[in-house]
């Protein structure tokens, strides 16, 4: 069972994933993330920091995904584990659709084609949503270095893309209000995952 957690920067994704790992401890889930579950993730972070060419950046994220699938996701699913990934392919579809928008005529189509045939589509995706000005306020509060994606206009387009993806696939997506209290969000998503796994 592959479960992914998505949302723009500043939605509290990482806190949620940390809480889930405690709340679902009895299920012994494999908790993982993109980018960065393999050494390629370090190159991705370097690429983000240096603001490399957007095509190169998109392909680095995708390379990290391929390695993540082979080294972490596929083995865990074969062992019938519940896998929870902090970001996954929808991050590419939502973020790189924006960064590639002026470069390619159909960025989303290009990104999806780059994944087709080898990626593993999640069984369930929790999408955290938040007003963009609130996300920006949280980002400036809790860190001093921000990534180049973390600008209001970009995040607002990324969130629109996420919502479009969710609308296209309502069976897979569950939209979660990131303005709720952290404990509430944790409990809601943990309960929902338990129900989904039982099903
Ligand atoms: P993030 O999960 O926010 O890492 P951290 O919490 O360490 O900052 O990911 C880093 C940035 O990369 C974030 O702004 C989202 C972006 N990103 C993409 O643009 N495309 C992708 O495919 C992924 C996985 C992340």
Summary, kept brief:
The protein is of the alpha/beta class and 199 residues long.
Overall description:
- There is one protein chain.
- This protein has 199 residues and is of the alpha/beta class.
- It has a single domain, classed as Rossmann fold (3-Layer(aba) Sandwich), CATH 3.40.50.
- It is built from eight helices and five strands.
- The chain has helices at residues 13-23, 40-50, 54-78, 89-99, 107-115, 132-142, 152-168, 182-198; strands at residues 2-7, 30-33, 83-86, 124-129, 173-177.
- A five-stranded parallel β-sheet has the order 2-3-1-4-5, sandwiched between helices.
- Helix 1 (13-23) crosses helix 8, helix 4 packs antiparallel against helix 5 (107-115) and helix 4 (89-99) packs across helix 7.
- The relative contact order is 0.21.
- Residues 9, 14, 34-35, 48, 61, 87, 91-92, 95-96, 147, 149 line the site of thymidine-5'-diphosphate.
Distance between the termini: 11 Å
CATH fold name: Rossmann fold
Number of domains: 1
List bound small molecules: thymidine-5'-diphosphate
Helix and strand sequence = EHEHHEHHEHHEH
CATH class: Alpha Beta
| Count of alpha and pi helical runs | 8
Assembly status:
single chain
Helix/strand structural class: alpha/beta
The side-by-side strand order for the widest beta sheet comes to 2-3-1-4-5
CATH homology group? P-loop containing nucleotide triphosphate hydrolases
Which blocks of ≥5 consecutive residues have pLDDT under 50?
Answer: none
């Amino acid at each position: 069972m592959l479960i992914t957690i998505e949302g723009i920067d500043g939605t509290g994704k990482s806190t949620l994933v940390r809480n889930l790992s405690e709340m679902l401890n009895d299920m012994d889930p494999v908790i993982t993330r993109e980018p960065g579950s393999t050494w390629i993730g370090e190159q991705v972070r370097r690429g983000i920091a240096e603001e490399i060419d957007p095509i190169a950046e998109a392909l680095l994220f995708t390379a990290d995904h391929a390695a993540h699938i082979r080294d972490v996701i596929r083995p865990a699913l074969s062992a019938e584990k519940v896998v929870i990934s902090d970001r996954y392919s929808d991050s590419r579809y939502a973020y790189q659709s924006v960064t590639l928008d002026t470069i390619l005529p159909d960025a989303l189509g290009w990104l999806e084609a780059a994944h087709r045939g080898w990626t593993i589509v999640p069984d369930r995706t929790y999408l955290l949503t938040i007003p963009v000005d609130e996300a920006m306020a949280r980002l400036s509060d809790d860190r001093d270095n921000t990534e180049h994606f973390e600008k209001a206009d970009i995040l607002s387009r990324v969130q629109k893309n996420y919502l479009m993806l969710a609308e296209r696939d309502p069976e897979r997506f569950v939209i979660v209000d990131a303005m709720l209290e952290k404990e509430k969000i944790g409990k809601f998503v943990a309960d929902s995952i338990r129900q989904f796994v039982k099903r």
